[in-house]
Amino acid sequence: MADIKKYISDLAVEFERLSYDDMESCSNSERLLYLYAYYHYFNADSSKITDITQGNVYERDSSDEIAGIYIDQDSDNADVDVVIVNYVENGEEFEFPGILKVFKDAENAIFAYMGNRTLCRKKLSTLLGDEDYKFAEDKPLKIRLITNFNPKTAAKKRAITNALNNMKPIHEYVSYQVSFGYDIEYEILEIESPKEYVDEASITVDRGNNFVSFGTENSVIVNISAKSLKSLYELYGYRGLFSQNLRYYVKNAKVDDNVIESIQEHPENFWYFNNGIILICEDYSIEDTSINLYKFSIINGGQTTKLIGETEFDRDFFLQCKIIKNRFTDEDDRLEFISNVAEASNTQKPIKDKDLIANRIEQRLLKKQMANAGVYCQIKRGEKVNKKLYPNAWQNTTNEELGQFLLSFVYQKPGTARGSKQSICGNKERYSLLFGKTYNSGFLCDLLRIKAYYKLWVTRIKKTDDGYDPYKVGLINNGMFFMTAIIGVVSKIYYHPELIESINESVMSEQKLELVSQHDLDHSVFMNFDKPKDQFFALFEYCYKHFYGPGYELFKSVKNGQNNYSNFTKINNNYMTYIFFQIVREYRNGIVGADKIFLDSIFYQASEDDLDRDRHLLQKYVNVISAEINVTSDVPEAVTARIKDELIAYRTKVCKEKRIKAYEVFRNLSCDRIAKFAPTTIEELRNLRCLDESQIKKFGDDIILIVVNSSIEHKK
Q: Which residues in the chain come in under a pLDDT of 50?
């Protein structure tokens, strides 16, 4: 494996390339912290360097030795990680067991700081005061020691890990962990050179011909040797062994401790207490007590495998292994089956919403689409980017992050995007809104370019800020999704000037916002700039000067004394009431003059074909936000009430028959709008803009029939 110093040196070059100089004067401990955070917490996403540096709380000779604080987004509960660094210079020894004392010191310090913030070091104060960094029983605290040191022997590693395991934290929801140099290097290797599966390997079973076969493809259940599985993990744990799983290994201290205890203390009972593992392969062959596997991956039991692989034990034991031979020629069918098996069979650890959607067809298609556009899109927790193929900041994202940008830019919900990231995959209606449709590849790439250059802009502003605007640094530091939403509105009005007239005619703010909260851009957003950084910086400055800053000033005048920037940017209503209001006011007569000239230099010059596709999208996908309460209707209230009751009854029936969700038929707001205006033709229904084309095609005729019959019944 490569020298970890080389990885640190390479990261320093990456920092410099992106105009960060934070590593120039750093100690080796800080550099190791940055390296670990870059790969472990941020999946080598260079747009997150600001987040990496913000997590650095290192102070030389600090009594608590806390070097960094980060949120582990891949853990089950978004654990808070407190990182201690022990960088061993050439010729130095790892100070064991004395080094173990730092775990207790760090834990005591953190809890003392949380009890009395005045005791807190300045670098720690901001992070510990943020709501996202509050830890509790359902959001554990991990104290992690990272080091470039590698134990020379298995016995020395065992002595260190055993000593650590025997040190019980003071608080129940705190755990201690250590990552050695080769652990860090393995994570780097997984990103720099990943594999999709293990090409070929063998496992040992308890005895010949002791298996149960099933299916025409001859899948089998066998009992495999734990030492055999341990060897498999040591060889391929970071080289394809878990690549087909819904997620990669996610630590859970309580569950892990129970498994480790069973391995070391009661191996004879492991077969009874553990569910074993499931793997899928293209083929296998059995030779007495050996099974040769070809192109295989573990799809369930990653936790068991990793713990067996990393736990020292003398007595071999056996566990159940289900070997599923691929019987699907179609890739989508195969992956869907894998997803269903993994979801149904996982009982030891909670499956998160992100895990459940990992192998859905729309996610696989999204991943493929983004790869074809030169972007790596992570759809599984723990999945690692191939940095050689995707070197730039905008080329690395996750499905959740992409959902955040769509929610902000397209659907004008920047507060939700920032404050409720988990709802991207967890809220079924929101998931359908975001991922139940297709997007232009250039458009998606441009959203990620906003991410990449916004982070650089924030860094520039922090370095050059003269204090003239007392709010600017705080606002932009927390405002990426607010800025994205602003650019979304500006671009939509730019491409479709007729929007202004419709907005001006609307009475309610919600109605105005609804007009621009539509999926209506089927092309790129930005021009191909020679100097993209300069152009994006100019765009951000324009949006801040005209809309973001004045909108916040308006907020301050109404909410006197409130200046919590983080909370301000988590609330959609703040955006709608103050920021969006400012855009509408600024563009009430359209985009004219110098503004138009400037935006002409920024935005992609759409052709008539592009604009025609925009209009098609607007018909195909309809996002309903609010019913038009203030618009009058000549439909009698009794008829409206009857139509609404009949529509709800119809929707309930359809959902049961077709086994679909209510919002897939129509949303409550759509129901209200239909009942209020009682359309009697498909065209009238379409003009209400409360159903998309797919809904009209499937349910439109039935809806019209309900409306007509309800009106007839009323007249009787």
A: 1, 249-250, 347-349, 627, 629
Q: How far apart are CA 292 and CA 33, in angstroms?
A: 41
Mean pLDDT for all residues in the chain: 85
User: Which pLDDT value is given to residue 136?
Assistant: 77
* CA contacts within 13 A on the Cβ side of 172: 4
Helix (H, G, I), strand (E, B) or coil at 71: strand
State the Cα–Cα distance between residues 298 and 565, nearest whole angstrom. 45
Beta bridge partners of residue 294, listed in sequence order? 200, 283
Interatomic CA distance for residues 686 and 644, integer angstroms: 18
| Interatomic CA distance for residues 543 and 372, integer angstroms | 31
Query: What is the token pair recorded at 520?
Result: 């209506």
Instruction: Give me the sign of the Cα torsion angle 238, 241, 243, 245.
Output: negative
Q: How many helices (H) and strands (E) does the chain have?
A: 35, 12
The pLDDT of residue 317 is 95
Closest CA to 128 of 70, 62, 42: 70
Please tell me the predicted confidence (pLDDT) of residue 76. Answer: 67
Whole-angstrom distance, CA of residue 465 vs CA of residue 376: 34
**Closest listed residue to residue 474, CA positions, set 487, 458, 463, 486:** 458
Strand order across the beta sheet in which 79-86 lies: 66-72, 79-86, 141-147, 174-179
Asked if residues 331 and 280 have their Cβ atoms less than 8 Å apart, the reply is no
Take residue 539 and report the two structure tokens written for it: 């765009």
Q: How far, in Å, are 34, 132, 176, 437 from residue 395 at the CA level? A: 20, 26, 34, 22
pLDDT at 74: 75
Tokens at 169, concatenated? 């934290």
- pLDDT tens digit string along 194-246? 677 899 999 999 998 899 999 888 999 999 999 999 999 888 887 788 877 75
Burial label for 690, CB within 10 Å (0-12, 13-18, 19+), is buried
579 class by beta-carbon count within 10 Å (0-12 exposed, 13-18 middle, 19+ buried) = buried
User: Are the CB atoms for 425 and 403 separated by under 8 Å?
Assistant: yes
Q: How far is CA 674 from the centre of its chain?
A: 36
Domains in the chain, start-ordered, CATH in brackets?
4-188 (3.40.91), 193-352 (no CATH), 363-620 (no CATH), 637-715 (1.10.150.80)
